[in-house]
Amino acid sequence: VAMLDCSNLYTISHQMCLAMENLxxxxxxxxxxxxxDFGQLPPPTRSPSLYSPTPSTFVHMTASxxxxxxxxxxxxxxxxxxxxxxxxxxxxxxxxxxxxQILENCRYKCCTDEDIAxxxxxxxxxxxxxxxLTDPQFRDIPIITALNAHRDQINLMxxxxxxxxxxxxxxxxxxxxxxxxx
Length: 182
Description:
By secondary structure, the chain is an all-alpha fold. The protein has helices at about 5-20, 65-80, 95-105, 115-120, 150-165.
């Protein structure tokens, strides 16, 4: 959620309203659960983040379409009234605890040289001492990439590998999304 901006939240709600054919209630009248790390970086768009003080929740008739979407998106965010904070990490190995500490250090701008060295040691690449995405240790773990094209290729490699390991055919399905009404 922390990477979601005001304009995108408006768009999500609007699309849900269209899909549910209910334009009178936010998110088409459905309950929505947001999950995320609110200590993350702001969204990579030019639209303000949900926690930004910039957009007003008041829409004036002279506001641009973009300003209106941002204001409505922020207003939708302010309608979220139930918050559950998970404060304790469970079932973590020593290595996972170390990475959690690194993420906290990154959040508060207090990374140590050891933190940076450990993160750099995990960058996959062609070098002799760099991890390879095809290594079994990376089989079922989340991988952070800069581009969606990289993520898609990694997912494709993982799907092919899963099918091969389980001696199953890999079947592709294509969906065609349509609204209930024109």
